[in-house]
Structures are given as C-alpha cells and as structure tokens.
Design brief:
The chain is an alpha+beta fold. The chain is built from 8 helices and 21 strands. About 15% of the residues lie in helices and about 25% in strands. The strands form 5 sheets. A 5-stranded mixed sheet has the order 3-1-12-7-8. It is elongated and about 75 Å long.
Length: about 425
C-alpha cells in the first residue's frame, strides 16, 4: 500500500471510531466488521499511542504524495548542486521581469543581471510585515485523491510584483521553476494579473510560499520557495520558483494546456471512501468512513447509497440524482491538528481560524478536507455497490456542476460489497 495512503487511513481511524461509538450498540458491533478499526484494538499500546498522534487533519511534509517532474527531479539533487543552481535559502534568487515576447512596462524590474533580484533574506524582510497563512488541500488535476493538506505560509505575490513598479501593458503573470537547465523539462503556469492583485470571494492571496505547517519548505515540497494558489489545482502552484514574467499576452501559457486541461478550474467538492468492509454478514450494520475535498463551492452534505446489483439502475439518470441517498455525518474538527505543527497549534493569524481561540471560524473549511462517517443498516444476502457523493453549499450534487474529468476528477466512487453468511 502507498505509504501516504496508509498514513491517511491511520489518521482517519481514531476520528471515525468516536462516531461509531456514539451510534450505540449497533455502532459498537459495527466496529468489529471494519478491518482498520478492528486491528486498532489489537495493537501494542505504545504503537497505538504513536498512531493516535497521526489523527491529523494536516499532513506532515514527508507524508505528502509526490508528483514532481524532472530528470532528475530537482529535489533529488545533491545539496552542493542545489546551492549551485539557487535551490537553497542562501542561494535562491527570484527574477521578476518583463516578458521578452510581450513586455509589460516596468520601472524597476528585479533581475539577476542588474543585481536587483529578490533574495531569501529580502523575502523574509517582506514577511515581517506581509506574511499570510492559510489552509489548503493540494490536489493534482488528473489524480483521483488529494496529495496532502497543509497550512501554507508566504508573502503575497502582489507585494513583490508592485516592487517592479509596473506602469502599463500588464495582463498576465507567467512563472516557472527550476528545470535542470533543459527547456524541454520546463514546467510553467500563469495567472491573470487581476487574481494576483486582488482576492475575490474572501480567498487568501496567491503567495510566494516558504513554509508548510510552520516549517521551512523541504526540497520535496518545492523549497526554498514555491507559488501557492489557494483555490487552484496543484499545477498552478509551481515548485522551485526561479522566475516570474509580467506579460501583455492575454492567453495562458501553462504546460497543462497541452494536455487538454481546464487551466482555470478551481478545486471541486467531492468525496470518497477510506474504510469500507468488503464482506459483511446478513443483517450486520455496515460502517463506512471517508474524506471530502471541500472545493470552491463549499460542502453542505455527504451522502451514501447502497444499491442491490440485481436491481436495474434507472434509465437516463447518469449521475444518480433520483437514487435513495441518505445523509452521512460530517465529522467535527479534530482535537489534534497534527502535521508536525510547532507546539501542535495552528499558527496565528491563519486564514479561516479565529485569531483568539485558534479554532475554525466555520466547518468544514473551504479548500481543505473533512472526514465523514455513516452506519448503514444490515442487508439481506447479495451483491451490492456502495456509492457516495457530496452536496456543495450551492446545492449541486457531485459530480456536478463540473462533471468533466479535465476540470478535475469528481466521478462518483463505486465500491463492491458482498453480504454473505
């Protein structure tokens, strides 16, 4: 099993156990039918204590799944090589210059040639006044599960953009990271300048990110500095940032454009299962647990549906809108946030958290994740398919309002379950 997935399952176990215990006798009985939770009771107390510490909403840096590009991948370079190419905090330099193809008019570009490129010490001076933090679930557009959830810290990109004193002809911001000095390996992305300069819909700003969960970004996570775009899929949050071009070109230049992807698609709301018993006895309650990605449209409900495979599915109802869905419970905020936070506390101020109590202002937090659980009634013998879906805060049921894979995966998951004596 993938180490990150196994870690997520362990994190999830304690959170969902409390839910089933609240369900009374049926919930207690159901604990024994769920392998993950059943194993929990057999573990050595010391091992269990370590796993209890993994009951985290946040993901440790080392536990994020990695989809980095490059040959070799930049984070695998030796420290000496990373120093040579500017991928350490003491050697990093960021150029913010006019796009050679369609230059914006700048009074003070930040360039290595002129000795004005921004170094890490300069970024930290800006951070004393401008640093922001926000929770974000990092998700790849073309992968069916999130890579990890974190508190990202950085300086708004606009703060540095304004240092160049732009005057005119600025419509888009292009940027890319280190790519082994090989143009064929370049991975690039872009944003309309309006999104960089302004934060619509109470979103956090686009940042030059240098910390994750209160710790310096590791090379694996894109350190020393990367872009993080709060509402976007991961391809917008370029790692190992080295250069920003301010351009008068109106169209995107993203590498992902060549893959027929929706370049401006924000995070979708969707859910999937984490723990489901694949075989249960007739009449035995069925515990189901999972996670939800809380996308740009928020999250109102998680629902589940168990379908007997002998029954025909209604014709012409591609997204099962007329199925007998039943509500699951969205679990409350955890007592421990995890993620190796210093002192185990959310650093304050952090977007979406109360600056006095350190607790979420509302739950679930948009652009992050939540856990859910349901205890389904027992069933007669047969073959069944379990499905789950979200209802977002606008009332749209998964996979709507954007059911197309190239704007982010959100297909309704199908899990086969056998009920047999």
């Amino acid at each position: 099993m993938n180490a990150a997935i196994e870690s997520l399952l362990n994190q999830h176990a304690m959170l969902t156990r409390r839910y089933f215990l609240r369900c009374g006798a049926a919930g207690v009985a159901a604990l024994g039918t769920l392998p993950l939770l059943a194993e929990e009771r057999k573990r050595d107390a010391r091992l269990q204590a370590a796993l209890d510490d993994l009951e985290t909403w946040l993901t440790k840096q080392d536990d994020f799944q990695d989809v980095s590009r490059g040959n070799p991948k930049p984070h695998s370079l030796s420290e000496e090589k990373r120093k040579q190419v500017g991928l350490t905090r003491d050697t990093w330099r960021l150029e913010v210059i006019a796009d050679p193809k369609a230059p914006a008019k700048l009074r003070s570009p930040l360039s290595k040639k002129d000795g004005t490129a921004l170094d890490f010490a300069g970024l930290m001076r800006l951070a004393k006044e401008h640093a922001v933090r926000f929770p974000k679930l990092m998700t790849c557009l073309n992968i069916g599960c999130p890579l990890g959830n974190g508190i990202w810290e950085g300086v708004p990109l606009r703060t540095v953009l304004w240092m160049t004193q732009p005057r005119d002809k600025l419509r888009r911001v292009f940027y890319h990271g280190y790519h082994n000095d090989d143009p064929k390996q370049m991975f690039r992305s872009s944003l309309p300048v309006g999104r960089v300069l302004e934060d619509p819909f109470d979103l956090p700003p686009v940042i030059l990110c240098y910390k994750l969960n209160g710790h310096w970004l590791t090379p694996e996570r894109g350190g020393p500095v990367r872009i993080v775009v709060p509402e976007a899929y991961g391809f917008k949050s370029i790692k190992w940032l080295t250069r920003v071009f301010l351009s008068n070109i109106s169209a995107a230049n993203d590498t992902y454009a060549n893959g027929n992807n929706d370049l401006d698609s924000p995070l979708k709301t969707f859910c999937a299962t984490l723990s489901v018993p694949r075989k249960v006895k007739p009449g035995e309650p069925i515990p189901v647990t999972g996670y939800a990605q809380v996308g740009i449209s928020g999250l109102k409900k998680v629902q589940v549906w168990m379908h007997n495979d002998e029954d025909d599915l209604p014709a012409g109802d591609r997204y099962h809108t007329k199925a007998p869905w039943r509500d699951a419970e969205i679990l409350p905020p955890p007592k421990s946030w995890g993620g190796d936070l210093p002192d185990g506390r959310i650093p304050l101020p952090t977007h979406s958290f109360d600056p006095k109590t350190g607790r979420p202002k509302s739950w679930p937090i948009r652009l992050s994740r939540a856990h859910w659980a349901a205890l389904l009634p027992g069933l007669p013998p047969g073959q069944y398919t379990l499905r789950c879906r979200t209802i977002d805060a606008k009332g749209a049921a998964q996979p709507l309002p954007r059911p197309f894979r190239k704007s982010g995966r959100a297909a309704i998951e199908q899990i086969p379950i056998t009920v047999k004596a």
